[in-house]
TrEMBL record, chain A:
Membrane topology: Multi-pass membrane protein
Subunit field text: The complex is composed of two ATP-binding proteins (UgpC), two transmembrane proteins (UgpA and UgpE) and a solute-binding protein (UgpB).
SUPFAM superfamilies registered for this protein in UniProt: MetI-like
Segments passing through the bilayer: 12-32, 66-96, 108-129, 152-178, 209-227, 269-289
Keyword match Mitochondrion: no
The protein's name: sn-glycerol-3-phosphate transport system permease protein UgpA
Protein localization: Cell inner membrane; Cell membrane
Naturally occurring in which organism (per UniProt): Rhizobium azibense
Annotated Pfam families: BPD_transp_1 (PF00528)
Residue stretches making up the ABC transmembrane type-1 domain: 71-285
Gene3D superfamilies assigned to the protein according to its UniProt record, in alphabetical order: MetI-like
Automatic annotation (TrEMBL), chain B:
UniProt key word Transmembrane: no
Organism: Rhizobium azibense
Name recorded for this polypeptide: sn-glycerol-3-phosphate-binding periplasmic protein UgpB
Function: Part of the ABC transporter complex UgpBAEC involved in sn-glycerol-3-phosphate (G3P) import. Binds G3P.
Subunit structure: The complex is composed of two ATP-binding proteins (UgpC), two transmembrane proteins (UgpA and UgpE) and a solute-binding protein (UgpB).
């Protein structure tokens, strides 16, 4: 039997939803509309009369080679970050799911990094992976310039991806663990009795049944990697977009352009392009990958 | 029952918000001052605010650090757009033109005249005042913490390496660097990619333009030309020195910036602000001999005055009338000879007025050990009357220009990029910034 709550007055549900609606209007639609406006005008930093310039801001953005560089950096960052967090999260989840002694403690330890703010994690890793005094210092002493994120863009990019992955693996881990625990025990137990090892059981039974969770995480992590606040926080506190634009992800470039360069219009145009890109990605994911996901 | 408790609690919270903090402070007019200094220098600003508040009964200044110069500008803009701007804000050199064209401030001279203070505006050092003044010489903001770049070297290390001269030219710096290297010092000279010392100050003392139109003073249509001046050769020289391991890059990203590199005696020579004079004196171990000198020039150069750095105080418009009386009183208080001298003593910043400097010279301030050498900053700033190239830099979006140049320097020194090609690219990109600024403020004239 289904239980349903029925509101007698038509305005009562609206009243309950009103705080939420107001917050969304205030913090989401209003800024979004301002960004739309600024992207097509030249907005003076202190306000005042902004001249309509049509698509000029977009033309400038697209004509800038460093803009395309930031698109490429963002793509690499989000893709590597997504793969890393999901794969490592999956391995950890399968390990904890086996209910060995101490798995409760590990479950807690694995989720912990997620509670740490991006910039704080960034600062910590700046020391841990510093080329001169961190973990890599002895390696650098033996092989000069083996690891130097201040000098090589590729090293710096690896550095920020590691921090991102370290922070977000706990998140994917929790979802995957929950997913695993909803896989009927009888299936894995039956497989075990048939002689399937843990790896075989994971590949043939657990992972396919996790497909909806994996798909959800794929969409979430790609979006997080592209526009998440941690992405900005980590880059800002470790490499500052450098060296020589090597870690300049799109969100960092937007903030830098707006607040350092006081170019609100250019930054707004970039935001709109970024939103467009996210929509395209999500569409592709739903269109082509979701088809291969089997829901129960 | 419970509801009434909740209701009364709610009511009292509401009342507190509406009627303000309480009657105790009601008679004082409060106003806000935002500043960009942090750490030790930020504490000294708080001291100044406390002194002011203790001294008089009518006003209370609330001083808040915004942590850095660029966040102060950003926060001031955001606050102004939300009509919540502070009465006074501290804006760094690079934000001067952005402020001037904003129309969001009360000019310094007008504020003081309106509130009945007479200030002798000619008392400010020309090189300092020109940076913040209109082309006609009217001050828009109050010079506050002014500095210039200096050359610091470790005299003990020099002695150990058998160097018996003070490096005044870059040829001599090179010679000293070689001798230091031979004597076993790994980092004879440390430097970072801050363009202030290497590009701006270098260009000024060598009388080289950074941009056309008198570094932008004569119009918003100025174009950057730093890629066609002696600066290019200077960068090439630095590159050669880096390749020979005589000059070493020291940045925060690499684990140690130039000032800690100098005070930990890792590097024996650096160029940095006179504002660091106090910190360096306090941080170097006792007994280590070190010297400060004017920035070196290339042999055969007619030395020009160096540029003023640091920040000035802007009074924002749109505040209630009463706050301006307080703001004027505070600015007048800062300008008193006693305060000027105190500020200059506890920081490394230079006195901004001629009378302030003379008074400090007369009472022997610069002869005392920890302060010795600071007078050279004034000597450097006032070395010659200002020329078109040494008056200041009046370019819009200058923070972005600095970033383009420092990124180019990073590519040159860290990734072996071609000097000319990188600087050309930085100039092109910076010119695009200027053109956008010009369009944004189309129809406005520089005054």
């Amino acid at each position: 039997m289904e239980k349903r709550a029925v509101f007698k007055n038509w305005w009562l549900p609206i009243l309950f939803a009103l705080p939420q609606i107001l917050l969304i209007l205030l913090f989401f639609y209003w800024p979004a509309i301002a960004v739309m406006k600024w992207a097509f005008t030249l907005e003076p930093p202190f306000g005042g009369i902004a001249e309509f310039v049509g698509l000029t801001n977009f033309e400038e953005v697209f004509a800038d080679p460093f803009y395309w560089n930031s698109v490429a950096v963002s793509l690499i960052f989000a893709l590597c970050g997504t793969c890393f967090t999901i794969l490592v999260g999956l391995v950890l989840a399968i390990a904890v799911d086996r209910r060995l002694p101490g798995s409760g403690l590990f479950r807690f330890l694995y989720i912990l990094p997620y509670a740490i703010a991006g910039p704080a994690a960034g600062m910590a890793f700046r020391f841990i992976l510093s080329p001169e005094r961190g973990l890599m210092a002895s390696l650098n002493a033996a092989f000069p310039d083996f690891w130097n994120p201040a000098k090589y863009g590729a090293h710096a990019l690896i550095l920020v991806i590691i921090i991102f992955a370290w922070k977000w693996t706990g998140y994917t881990f929790i979802f995957l663990l929950a997913g695993l625990q909803s896989v009927p025990r009888s299936l894995t137990e039956a497989a075990a009795m048939d002689g399937a090892g843990p790896i075989r059981r994971a590949i043939d039974i657990q992972v396919p049944l996790l497909a909806p969770t994996l798909f959800f995480l794929l969409v979430i992590m790609m979006t997080e990697g592209f526009v998440g606040s941690d992405t900005f926080g980590i880059v800002h506190s470790t490499t500052g977009g450098g060296p020589n634009h090597g870690t300049e992800v799109m969100v960092f470039r937007i903030v830098d352009e707006a607040f350092k360069g006081l170019n609100y219009s250019g930054a707004s145009a970039q935001s709109i392009v970024l939103i467009g890109l996210i929509m395209i990605f999500t569409f592709i994911q739903f269109r082509f990958i979701e088809k291969r996901v089997h829901y129960k | 029952m419970r509801l009434t408790v909740l209701q009364s609690a709610l009511a009292s919270v509401l009342a507190a918000t509406v009627f303000g903090a309480g009657p105790a402070h009601a008679e004082k007019t409060k106003f806000e001052f935002w500043y960009g200094l942090s750490g030790d220098l930020g504490e000294r600003v708080q001291d100044a605010c406390r002194k002011f508040n203790d001294m008089q009964a009518d006003y209370e200044i609330i001083c808040t650090s915004q942590n850095s110069y660029d966040t102060t500008l950003q926060n001031t803009i955001a606050a102004y757009r939300a009509r919540k701007q502070p009465a006074i804000t501290q804006i760094y050199d690079a934000g001067t033109l952005d402020m001037m064209l904003s129309g969001a401030f009360v000019p310094a001279k007008k504020l003081m005249a309106d509130n009945g203070y007479t200030i002798d505006w000619t008392n400010y050092f020309g090189g300092i005042a020109n940076y913040y003044a209109t082309a006609a010489g009217e001050l828009n903001s109050f010079p506050f913490n002014s500095s210039t770049a200096m050359f610091y070297y470790n005299a003990d290390a020099f002695q150990k390496a058998g160097i018996d001269f003070k490096p005044e030219t870059w040829e001599e710096v090179e010679e000293a660097a070689r001798k230091l290297k031979t004597a076993g010092f790994d980092c004879p000279l440390g430097f970072n990619f801050d363009t202030w010392q290497m590009m701006e100050q270098f260009s000024a003392i060598h009388n080289q333009p950074i941009a056309t139109k008198g570094n932008g003073y004569q119009g918003l249509d100025a174009e950057l030309v730093f890629n066609k001046t002696k600066f290019v050769d200077h960068v090439k020289f630095f590159k050669k020195m880096v390749d020979e391991k005589l000059f070493v890059v020291k940045t925060k990203q690499l684990g140690m910036d130039i000032v800690p590199a100098f005070t930990s005696q890792t590097c024996q020579m650096i160029q940095t602000s006179i504002a660091d004079h106090g910190t360096i004196g306090k941080t170097l171990p006792e007994g280590v001999k070190w010297e400060v000198a004017m920035l070196p020039v290339w042999k055969g150069t007619q030395r020009q005055n160096s540029l003023v750095g640091g920040a000035s105080l802007w009074v924002m418009d749109g505040r209630p009338e009463g706050e301006y009386k307080g703001a004027a009183a505070f600015l007048n208080f800062l300008a008193t000879p006693d305060m000027a001298q105190w500020w200059s003593t506890v920081t490394g910043y230079i006195p901004v007025t001629k009378t302030g400097f003379e008074a400090m010279k007369a009472n022997g301030f610069y002869d005392k050990a920890p302060y010795k050498g600071r007078e050279l900053a004034i000597a450097s700033l006032t070395y010659t009357p200002t020329s078109q190239n040494t008056r200041g830099i009046r370019l819009g979006g200058f923070t972005q220009v600095r970033k383009e140049v420092s990124t180019a320097l990073e590519a040159i020194f860290m990734q072996n990029a071609d000097v000319q090609a990188e600087l050309d690219q930085a100039a092109d990109r910076s010119n695009a910034v200027l053109r956008r600024f010009e369009k944004t403020y189309a129809g406005q004239k520089l005054n």
